[in-house]
Amino acid sequence: MILIISQKNETATLEVIKHLILMKKKFIRVHEDEIFDIKTIKKRILIESNRNSFFIDEIESVWYRRGGLKFNRLKYNNHSILLNMNETQYWLEDYVQKTLESKRHVNKQSTSAVNKLIVLDKAKEIGFDVPEYYLAENTNQVEINKTILKTITGNVTLDEIKKDFSGFMYTTTVEEHENDDFFITFFQVKIEKDFEIRTFYFNGNCWSMAIFSQNDEETKIDFRKYNKKNPNRNSPYMLPRHIEEKINLLMKILDINCGSLDFIKKGEKYYFLEINPIGQFSSLSNICNYSLEQKLAEYL
Question: Measured at the alpha carbon of residue 251, what is the angle toward residues 62 and 245, in degrees to the nearest 5?
Answer without folding.
Answer: 125
